[in-house]
Design goal:
single chain, alpha/beta, Rossmann fold, seven-stranded parallel beta sheet, two-stranded parallel ribbon, globular, UXS-like, NAD, NAD(P)-bd_dom_sf, decarboxylase, lyase
Amino acid sequence: MADKVLITGGAGFIGSHLAEWFKQQGRAIVLVDDLSTGRRENIAPLLDRDCQLIEGRASAVLRDPAVLVGVSEIYHLAAAVGVKLVVDQPAEMVRNNIDETHAVLDAARQANAAVLIASSSEVYGKCPTLPLREDMELVYGPTTASRWSYGLTKALDEHLALDYHRRYGLGVIITRLFNTIGPRQLGRYGMVVPRFVSSAVRNQPIQVYGDGRQTRAFSDARDIVRAMADLLGKPACHGQVYNLGSDRQITIRQLAEMVIDLAGSTGGVREVPYEAVYGQNFEDPPQRLPALDRIRNAIGFKPRYTLEQTLTELIEREQQSLAITSGTASDACE
């Protein structure tokens, strides 16, 4: 019986947590990743006869029918990562997001596999009405602000997926992710929590972009991947769009202060203008808060990790990593 799971972006931050979850469930797994932002070390402990990594872009790898043999579910998590990458390379991001999603949907249809498309809260653009609901109208800024190009590509991905559901009966789920955090997330692509944790542990000032009054809602990747699996495994949910995240708001300055307090840091907070990081014409939504009624009704979604628990774990991991690195450096000098 076909029961294999295929995950694009499987060596990435969220993809590796999803792979870990399915490994615990005893499922056979195929991970597809070109390792441009994913890392082999994220999934190295999982690799064996029942969990294989195929290096390459999904559009190339999925041309081989043998890759799809036995696959019943596909989770498409391969996409451009982080606001900074989107601002720096918008054209490459646009091509990657749309072309790769189209290729994944074709492969899912060929394999008759259900497919989950990981979308983003960026789809909402700068909608002023909170909470953000799946059926509300979308509002974007001007094309001169490249930030909005990412949300537009994700919206097009959703249109593609929903059309495959309507035309071909493909089992499709779309999840709009809101500020997912957790172990293995990197700060180099502009992700706020790993940046804050790294600075706090080193007693360096935490850089808050803008005035820090913008609000976000953060959720742990381990809660997110369980919800993804629950949704795709429930045919009654197919053909729907779901917000997926937390509805606990916090300002970015409050987040920085929480990290400082949990880490016992003396570095403080330093405000940095957006223009100094992202250049001119950058726009940032002042608030992002999802409505979660739909996913709660669908699968009884209830996160297991609080923000404080996740931050505490991340701080402890960073402290351990720093101690190991410092110890290695000291040993080398002796």
